Amino acid sequence: MTDAPHDAARRSPVVVLASGTGTLLAAIIDRAASFDAAFTVVGVVVDRPCPAVQIAADADIPVVECILQEHPDRATWDTVLADAVAAFAPDWVATAGFMKILGPAFLHRFGGTVVNSHPVRARERRQQRGVADALAYGVKVTGTTVHLVDDGVDTGPILAQRIVEVAPDDTEVTLHERIKIVERALLPEVVDALAARGVVTDGRKAHLK
Ligand code: GRF
Q1: CA gap 160, 182 in Å, rounded
Q2: Cα-Cα-Cα-Cα dihedral of 117, 147, 150, 17, to 10°?
Q3: pTM
Q4: If residue 86 lies in a helix (H) or strand (E), which one and from where to where?
Q5: Which segments constitute the Formyl transferase N-terminal domain (predicted)?
Q6: Ligand 1 atom with least separation from CA of 131
Q7: Number of domain units in the chain
Q8: What is the CATH number of the domain that holds 77?
Q9: Which residues sit with their C-beta closer than 6 Å to ligand 1?
Q10: Whole domain around residue 23: which residue ranges?
Q11: Is residue 76 part of a domain?
Q12: CA-based max dimension of the chain
């Protein structure tokens, strides 16, 4: 079986939200550049000046800054953010190191189409919210979870997970960097699968088609 290249005109439009160094954004852009990609990155929205802006600019992708402090309150910012994303008319929104919680207005507009990568595997343990928590808990394996975004914090239906082993001498920095290597492969893969085939959800259970 060979993969047929997707007609560029039919590639699913994706908006990426980012706040940080943008390495996940770069991985998504790289995947979109492959001949058989099912999606194209039509816009990037950031909530602060950050290296992700330059990564998007280098790829000729329009960037919009939507900064919380420039708005009277969080609800207004959330609506402005939703408007900024809506202007790109995306099928899917990927949060790639976006360090703000999406609010009700945003999720009302885009609920069910937002995918996030979270750098911890065992989300069933609520005390393990992040890499530092997982290390402090003494886990021997952790990993990454790619999930749909709902109105909780990293609680939406899980789309894919990968395991990363914890080394005895790991620090938060070294462990997070190894997890990010896995995230940079997994998140673009999931975005591509969503764009190509979509997802079926049944309560907490989600299956990529
Ligand atoms: C990733 O680990 C992501 O899961 C977390 O922040 C990191 C983003 O890194 N929320 P980068 O900004 O893409 O390099």
Answers
A1: 12
A2: 30
A3: 0.92
A4: helix 74-86
A5: 14-191
A6: 2
A7: 1
A8: 3.40.50.170
A9: 20-25, 96-97, 117-119, 180, 183
A10: 13-198
A11: yes
A12: 55
